[in-house]
Amino acid sequence: MKYSAGLKSQMIRRMASPDGVTATELAQEVGIHQTTLSRWLRDAATVKGLAIAPSAEGSETPMKPRRPRDWTPEEKLQAVIEAQSLPDEELGAFLRRKGLHEAQLQEWRAIILEGLKSRPARPSSKPTVSGRRIRELEKELERKEKALAEAAALLVLQKKVQALWGDADAPTGKKSAR
Q1: Are 13 and 27 in contact (CB under 8 A)?
Q2: Model confidence at 123, in pLDDT bands (50, 70, 90)?
Q3: pTM for the full model?
Q4: How far apart are CA 26 and CA 42, in angstroms?
Q5: What is the largest CA-CA distance in the chain?
Q6: Greater model confidence, 118 or 55
Q7: Pick from 116, 114, 108, 111: which is nearest to 68 by CA?
Q8: Measured between alpha carbons, how far is 162 from 169 in angstroms, rounded to an integer?
Q9: Which of 40, 110, 133, 136 is deepest in the core (most CB within 10 A)?
Q10: Whole-angstrom Cα distance, residue 118 to residue 114?
């Protein structure tokens, strides 16, 4: 059965309004099958890319729906605060009106709470007396390690020279008489 565009938009407005009724309740009231009403509502929000919202004069005003991931952090915070103050009976209508799922609201709430947790204080970048002393001692240790490595290398070299040329102080063998 074909339904007029005006009837469809009227049913969509009734389901999507802040005090909107469910598709099941509306189906019993008007005699249109619940799946048909649900499909109209879904199509109005996703397939056409437009949601029909009633304006002040009561005429239809197309507005582009915004995905929750396109919301600014301020809008997300405001939605969490508003939802927190609502009783459970009104939460469903609020979520439909905003185009949100309860899981998204819970995720945003968790992110906000995580951001509010205190973090350990960072150490200051200004050097302390003990920090300066540690750096000085580390430099001195590095200098002494280099000197020790140089002395060890000289000792090894001295032993190699003695092994090759022999001891310079030791007497040499007899010279030939030629």
Answers
A1: no
A2: low
A3: 0.35
A4: 15
A5: 139
A6: 118
A7: 108
A8: 11
A9: 40
A10: 9
